[in-house]
Amino acid sequence: MIGINNLSVEFSAKPLFSNISFSINDNDRLALVGKNGAGKSTLLKIISGQQQPTAGSVALPNDITIGYLPQEMLTTDDTTLFDETKKAFSERIKLEERLEEITAEIASRNDHDSEDFLKLLSTADDLRNSLQVRFPENMDAEIEKTLIGLGFKQEDFNRPTSEFSGGWRMRIELAKILLRKPELLLLDEPTNHLDINSIQWLENFLVTKAGAVVLVSHDRAFLDNVTKRTIEISCGKIYDYKASYTPFQALRKERIETQLKAFENQQKLIAETKDFIERFRYKATKAVQVQSRIKQLEKIVPIEIDEEDTSSVNFKFPPAERSGDFPVITDELGKSYGTHRVFSAVNFTMRRGEKVALVGSNGEGKSTFVKCVMSEIPYDGALKIGHNIKIGYFAQNQAQLLDTNKTVFETVDDVAVGDIRTRLKDLLAAFLFRGEDIDKKVSVLSGGEKTRLAMAKLLLEPVNFLILDEPTNHLDMRTKEVLKKALKDFNGTVIIVSHDRDFLDGLVDKVYEFGGGKVREYLGGIYDYLRERRVEASAGTLKSQNSDDKKVEDNPVFPDEKVSSSNDSPKTLTYQQKKEFDRQLRKAEKIVSTIENEIENIESLILELEEKMSQGIISDEIMKEYSDKKRLLDSKTEEWDKAQTELDTLKSQL
Questions:
Q1: How far is residue 622's CA from residue 610's CA, in Å, rounded to a whole number?
Q2: Which letter does DSSP use for residue 315 in this model?
Q3: Helices and strands (DSSP H and E) totals, the chain
Q4: What distance in Å separates the CA atoms of residue 51 and residue 57, rounded to the nearest whole number?
């Protein structure tokens, strides 16, 4: 489909990557990964035609349609949300207008046998076919479905786009791109401005409805759920793996280990060969063998070990004084903006050492709640900050709040006090700002570099209560892992506003969901919360089905029986409802049983492959099959979890 041929890019004579080549095929689900600054965004810009390479070329079919979403873009504000999104179908509108003109001309003509008239008929047919094939029949319904999937509400549709924040405007642009249904989607950090529900909707869209997709994302769960192929950019080279992100990590490690082992074996062979040559070089009886070994040595092609980019952020939060037992207590907390009630009656108590996540759709009050805790805005009700609390606050726009006219060093030097001033260069080095980097202006830093610098400022003063609002936006995988570990080791209290499921997994032990003006508490981790929400949604669906059932006057056997309430158990349901419930239950049990058998078979195959590998039988085919089976097992396990949850929900109705 698309060929990237010997591509090279240089900035100020410094190579970003050199002579890279790969292809993008129809229906590829491809992840571009690598450290911040490795060249991922640059590569997307080159493929989309936004930037030219230093050398090499991109071979594109003439008629291919490409949708490109950059990390940041300028948007216009001259219309409403719905009308702006409708611009995605501007080509369709032009085709419809052209078809209208031709249809009117056909109706006005009498020369039905002329060549010109027949051409008009043919053009009209072509336009109708193009409209039917390329565009949805119900344009408005598609727009509504996409906007709601990305987190907008119906009451937003007639609002001017100027009323939306930058993150919501990016969603508008994403909606327009998805509605155009291009053959190739290039998405650069599409989840940065999405909440968990919108991310899951986008995952489903990309998997079921998109053509070829190339993603740059630091959301591991998102990549694992969408992609099937991973291209790593590292040290100016690329490495192509036919696997999603998590299996890619294992395969990458195995590749390096295999190369190292082969390199060591080759070095041993070379040393033994040279030793033989030296020992018998002047022995006439061994002359033939010596010459043979010399030729053998000359034919050896040295095995190269791929260069690894091992640089990573290294830090931990400094110890602070012990805080009181209850850092935050709220009593009937509420917040309104005019007539709009963001949330009300919030009773929230945090214990010292707890790590909690705030989740929910954008605009439901997560950041507003944080601002209440920080006393940045007035509120209703009571909010008490505990004894000896020292707060470290990372705002959602913290990176954008940096003074772009200052250098990296000046940014931390201006706020540092005490002994830490003597160790500022060490602190910056821990965040990968070394040598000349510390003299760079903030204005030239990438999004990830700005976020790292803003995070470094957090360490300038010991705190015992961290409030982090979307801290992982623009951070690469390695930096996120380091931050996650530092937060796990942090002995203070933490509130995290985040949509990154992998980052929150194993880090938080409680989830607060903001939505509909209320705040609900869920005990457990982020995936416990998501499972419970699925159960609630499934129960709500069944309840809705029961409540929407018609009265059983259509059933001649029970003509006078009334429909039971939606809270009735299956034992008290009508005959038809009970019959339908039993059918759903049998179907759910069969699905679970089938998946369990599939999982058992996959596990047996994995054990056989592991047995072969333990005996030293390793090849590319075996490694690929092993990776495929592990990925399939993960997929089936997730499928089983969902099916079992649905079955448990049904059984709970008995």
A1: 10
A2: -
A3: 19, 19
A4: 11
